[in-house]
TrEMBL record:
Record family assignment: Belongs to the trehalose phosphatase family.
Function summary: Removes the phosphate from trehalose 6-phosphate to produce free trehalose.
This protein's name: Trehalose 6-phosphate phosphatase
Stored SUPFAM superfamilies: HAD-like (SSF56784)
InterPro entries xref list: HAD-like_sf, HAD_sf, OTSB-like, Trehalose_PPase
Record EC number: 3.1.3.12
Reaction(s) catalysed by this chain's protein: alpha,alpha-trehalose 6-phosphate + H2O = alpha,alpha-trehalose + phosphate
Pathway as given in its UniProt record: Glycan biosynthesis; trehalose biosynthesis
GO molecular function, one term: trehalose-phosphatase activity
Length: 259
């Protein structure tokens, strides 16, 4: 992996983007620092302003594991594309499938309430996001025990969901729901974009990096041993710098059809 703010990383970024590139970002851990309470995130105002400015120069998407409504409340503005539930919510034309995902989740929540009646007592927090759900154990007094209970409970769900691990969380996702990589490709196709940039910090973001699609410039937030991303930044606080760098490049390479 190449550090984005090295000479080589900067040169590769310059060669990879212009005003017709789709710029897509994950939310938690990327646009907002990770905090203990999922409801307590704060997107720094510099990042919000940067996204708004970038949105006037090129298409911008936020692709998040949160529900769209929740993400919107934190963003305070609508990016051109806002995909929620890891790709399961908010893509053009997917209304009927989303309703089916919500129905499935209602069933899983009822089952989990029976399997994990003491969830709160174990420090497990169930986040109902409509089309998917998340079981958090960050704040459990015994994280290992809480995690084991979650894994056991999820393994008993019927029908079997797709389970994706995250930062002290297990995400329960309907089989057949698009993942973040597929969602990004859908938006590119919809817009006719030949190139995209995507930045993300977590396991579900690897669904984008793992496409290994040369048209997509992937940036992992936080260096990890195993990632399919080709570039990384050290930490979330560098996102503001990334937005500035992107906009400086677009000012000199606006793209043929940009405003
Ligand atoms: O795809 P993302 O936008 O990165 O969303 C992934 C999950 O983020 C949230 O949980 C994570 O962030 C919380 C706040 O910093 C943190 O407390 C938690 O431990 C993390 O797992 C969100 O609550 C989930 O719904 C998202 O799926």
């Amino acid at each position: 992996m190449t550090y984005l703010f090295s000479d080589a990383g900067r040169a590769e970024l310059r060669g990879a983007i212009d005003g017709e590139t789709l710029f897509a970002f994950d939310l938690d851990g990327t646009l907002a620092p990770i905090v203990a309470d999922p409801a307590g995130i704060m997107i720094p105002s510099g990042i919000k302003n940067g996204l708004l400015r970038l949105g006037r120069m090129a298409p911008v998407a936020v692709i998040t594991g949160r529900s769209r409504a929740d993400a919107l409340a934190h963003l305070g503005f609508s990016p051109r594309f806002l995909v929620g539930n890891h790709g399961a919510e908010g893509l053009p034309g997917d209304g009927a499938t989303e309703r089916e995902f919500i129905r499935l989740c209602r069933g899983w929540i009822a089952q989990l309430q029976a399997i994990l009646p003491d969830a709160d007592g174990s420090g497990i927090y169930m986040e109902d996001k409509g089309a998917t759900l998340s079981l958090h154990y960050r704040n459990a007094p015994d994280r290992e025990l809480a995690h084991r209970k979650i894994l056991e409970a999820v393994s008993r769900l019927d029908p079997e969901p797709r389970r994706i691990s995250g930062k002290f969380v297990e995400n329960v996702v309907p089989q057949g729901a698009l993942h973040k990589g597929e969602a990004l490709l859908r938006i590119m196709e919809h817009l006719g974009c030949r190139r995209a940039l995507f930045a993300g910090d977590d396991v579900t973001d690897e669904d984008v990096f793992g496409l290994r699609d040369d048209r997509i410039f992937g940036i992992r937030v936080g260096m990890v041993e195993v990632s399919a991303a080709r570039h990384f930044i050290h930490e979330q606080s560098e996102i503001g710098l990334l937005l500035d760098e992107i906009m400086a490049i677009l000012e000199t390479h606006p793209g043929e059809n940009s405003p």
